[in-house]
Design goal:
Structural class: alpha+beta
CATH superfamily of the largest domain: Bira Bifunctional Protein, Domain 2
Strand order of the largest sheet: 1-5-6-11-10-9-7-8
Oligomer: single chain
Helix content: 40-55%
CATH architecture of the largest domain: 2-Layer Sandwich
Shape: elongated
Number of strands: 16
Radius of gyration: 28 Å
Largest sheet: 8 strands, mixed
CATH topology of the largest domain: BirA Bifunctional Protein, domain 2
Strand content: 15-25%
Length: about 450
């Protein structure tokens, strides 16, 4: 007996019902992106490893899926190298490409490669899958979709303000209560200087970024293992638990970081951003979180992370300012800022909160029953009318018992059925059945378009 086929751990199949829910999320996000003037692009699933490596930090680089070179990928490798089993060296020799880890680095590569075709500032959105060789667990997958929105070629903090508004608009439309956490990498650099560890900013941000996951004691232990002195770790503690309003925190930071030019610039940027946000009516809660670090190395200014207020699942959206990501590809001085929506985690949140209950979960709105050859021409006439009206409709393909056809409609969650049997054909009418209530109504064919316009099209 053949073994049952499976898929790799950390990946998922999506049923038709699940896809309709996912499309609802994608369509909602896409509509808001377009509302703010962003344009769509796509990039390949795989990139050259030279494009990807070194952009995500040491831990991120380990999570990149590498693709074996075509053909005899061991040619040119000595037996000595094979026996040494140096994974890193061998990987570099037999793999030249990898699956994209995120959409931001490929976007930076795209900007540099197409610089002569782009009008700056360039506002783009991109909705595609990404891959990470991570350990699968609840809310964490090896293949998942990201919905990115970025603007590049502008230093204005109005871009950060607009992205926060986009976040708030999207989650408001999805009916997810959120908290939007904001910090600034310049402030984190200033804090590293304040505790006497300015050269260890990367180690500090990577550790702090794990605070919610592993707790403060484990973060402190990791910092000490990275070589941060006990005195510096102790000096850091009050900042990790700093309480009060945004203004209270900024005032305290100004008292601690007056000698850090970078830190003071970060404070000024946050003051400006929060002053803009203070003028907006927001559905979600916005707060300054000094423990927010976002471990990716390319962030240089504002950093943003979004969490559900009602479901514990980790970040469902995040991003920030990157001042010179294009510089690694030879295009210096181009600043950008963007955020990424995690569609898979958003789906899980909505499923857990029952937010899909009122969403149409069938791709078909009307099923026309099949009574056989004698009524088929009339049924096809009805079907043509429905599709000309852009009502999603199908004709049951076989003239089976009506109970079987009705059961199909019920299983598919099709809300309306059109019955056009011998009586209806003779009188040039149809019988419309509402599946949710069982109500049936006889309608002249000549009135069908007007009736369905009110019943279906206006109710969408």
């Amino acid at each position: 007996m053949a073994s049952k086929p499976t898929i790799p751990t950390g990946t998922r199949d999506f049923s038709a019902d699940e896809m309709l829910k996912r499309e609802f999320i994608f369509d909602t996000i896409k509509k808001v992106f377009k509302l703010y003037g962003y344009q769509p692009i796509e990039t390949p699933a795989m990139e050259n490893l030279s494009t990807l490596l070194g952009k995500y930090g040491e831990e991120g680089d380990k999570l990149i899926f590498r693709i074996l070179n075509s053909g005899d990928f061991f040619s040119g490798i000595s037996d000595e190298d094979l026996l040494k089993k140096d994974t890193g060296k061998l990987s570099a020799q037999i793999c030249e490409k990898g699956l994209r880890y995120d959409l931001t680095v490929p976007f930076a590569r795209y900007v540099v490669q197409h610089r002569n075709e782009i009008v700056f500032p360039f506002k783009r959105y991109q909705i595609q899958p990404v891959w990470r060789a991570d350990r699968p667990q609840k809310g964490r997958y090896r293949e998942f979709s990201q919905c990115d929105v970025d603007v590049i070629g502008s230093d204005s903090l109005l871009n950060e303000y607009e992205l926060v508004r986009i976040i708030d608009d999207i989650f408001s439309k999805l009916r997810i209560a959120i908290v939007i956490k904001i910090n600034n990498r310049k402030i984190l650099s200033g804090i590293a200087e304040y505790i006497g560890e300015g050269s260890r900013i990367t180690d500090i941000t990577v550790a702090i970024d794990k605070l919610d996951k592993i707790g403060i004691d484990a973060v402190n232990e990791e910092l000490r293992e990275k070589g941060v002195s006990r005195a510096s770790v102790k000096k850091l503690q009050p900042l990790l638990v700093l309480k009060g309003t945004t203004e209270d925190k900024l005032i305290k930071l100004e008292e601690l970081l007056p000698t850090s030019e970078t830190g003071m610039k970060g404070i000024a940027e946050l003051r400006t951003l929060f002053s803009y946000l203070g003028l907006a009516e927001m559905s979600g809660r916005v707060e300054l979180d000094l423990t927010l670090a976002r471990g990716l190395n390319y962030y240089t200014g504002a950093i943003i992370e979004v969490k559900s207020s009602d479901v514990t699942i980790g970040s469902i959206c995040g991003g920030g300012r990157y001042d010179n990501l294009t510089g690694v590809f030879g295009m210096e001085g181009i600043s950008g800022v963007g955020v990424s929506f995690g569609a898979d985690r958003i789906y899980d949140v909505m499923e857990q909160l029952g937010l899909f209950n009122n969403i149409l979960t069938s791709s078909t709105e009307v099923l026309v029953l099949n009574f056989g050859e004698g009524e088929l021409q009339y049924a096809l006439k009805i079907l043509g009318l429905l599709r000309n009206m852009e009502i999603k409709a199908e004709l049951y393909p076989d003239p089976l018992k009506l109970k079987k056809q009705m059961s199909y409609a019920d299983s598919r969650k099709i809300p309306y059925i059109i019955i056009a049997g011998e009586d209806e054909v003779r009188t040039d009418e149809i019988t419309l059945k509402v599946m949710s209530s069982g109500e049936q109504k006889r309608i002249p064919f000549i009135d069908l378009e007007a009736y369905l316009s009110t019943l279906i099209i206006k109710q969408r």
